[in-house]
Structure formats: C-alpha cells, structure tokens
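Priority: medium. Attachment 1 of 2:
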C-alpha cells in the first residue's frame, strides 16, 4: 500500500490477473495492512453523477476505519485530516477511483471521508471497522472554503439535506465534534 499525503490514509492498487476470460484481483486482505482493519459492516452506495457524500467521520473511540472501493463507474474519493492537534489538520487528499483501474483507499479512524460521483452512475463499496452508530456519526460541510477541497469543475454537486446542513470545520471544532489527534494515536496503539 502507498501512503497518501494525509497521515493515516493509504492507497491499495492490486495486481490484476487478466486472460481471455476477464480479470481477477485480490481486493482486500487483513494481513499486511499498514493499519489494523477488520470488517464489522459492508456498505454499498449507488450514486448519480454529481452526488457528493460526506465529509463523514465517527467519534473516536471507537471511530470507524474504512476500506473504500469504486466497483462501477467513477468517483473522486477524498480523505480529510480532522484530528485536532494533528500536524496535517485540515489537509486533504483525493484519488480518482473507477471500475477500470482497481484501487482501494484505507482510511484510519478520526479521518473524514467523502466522494463525488463522476460517472452517470457510480457504485462504491466500503468495509467499516465498526457498525453504523447514529449517535457517534458526524460530518463537515464538503464545500467549506477552509478545507478548500478541489472538487471537479463542470459537475453540478448534489448533497443530502444532512450534508448540506453540516457544520464548517471551524464550527465542528468549536462544538467539540472533531476527534483529537493524541486520542486517535493512543487508540491506534491499543489492542482491538
């Protein structure tokens, strides 16, 4: 796995075995991951062009690590460092993921995740280390100028009411919603 510019995020580009029948690749294996990840829940979202989901994160502990793949269509997948006190606080990285070049993003607990559907229809599958916990789930507005995420131009964004009403990074920080970097580092080091 290759480390992204946001500490705690990696990109997996599997080796694809192709022949006249088609192709095969190993999409996920827990052994050898740079961050522990066991799937407690698998989610699948189907989105129309322009749909933006996120920036979502979960309270730490227990947080929610994610392993994200685009299995049909194309998305711009984004990870954001939301850990207060982190040297990279507010930094983001983005990777185009699609069904032609298999890739997956591993995202540690405490980081924010979002994506925008670039194709007419995009299917994203993601493994989560913890099941959905409505009381511990939070978001930051994906178009907050303080984040400055470079969303693709020429694609009309579509947000859920919840994501459109999400606080800015500053508002989420002032409200105490964001995870602390030191708390996350201790959580990463603890046995799970």
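Attachment 2 of 2:
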């Amino acid at each position: 796995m290759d480390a992204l510019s946001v500490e705690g995020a990696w990109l997996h580009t599997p080796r694809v075995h192709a022949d006249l029948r088609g192709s095969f690749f190993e999409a996920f294996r827990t052994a050898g991951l740079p961050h522990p990840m066991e799937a407690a829940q698998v989610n699948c979202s189907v989105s129309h062009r322009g749909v933006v989901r996120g920036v979502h994160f979960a309270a730490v502990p227990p947080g929610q690590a994610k392993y994200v793949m685009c299995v049909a269509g194309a998305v711009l997948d984004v990870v954001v460092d939301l850990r207060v006190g982190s040297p990279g606080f507010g930094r983001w990285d983005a990777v185009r993921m699609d069904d032609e070049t298999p890739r997956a993003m591993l995202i540690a607990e405490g980081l924010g995740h979002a994506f925008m559907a670039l194709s007419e229809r995009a299917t994203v599958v993601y493994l989560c280390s913890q099941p959905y916990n409505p009381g511990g789930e939070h978001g930051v507005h994906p178009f907050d100028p303080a984040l400055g995420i470079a969303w693709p131009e020429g694609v009309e964004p579509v947000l859920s009411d919840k994501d459109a009403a999400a606080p800015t990074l500053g508002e989420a920080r002032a409200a105490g919603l964001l995870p602390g970097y030191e708390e996350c580092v201790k959580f990463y080091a603890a046995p799970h």
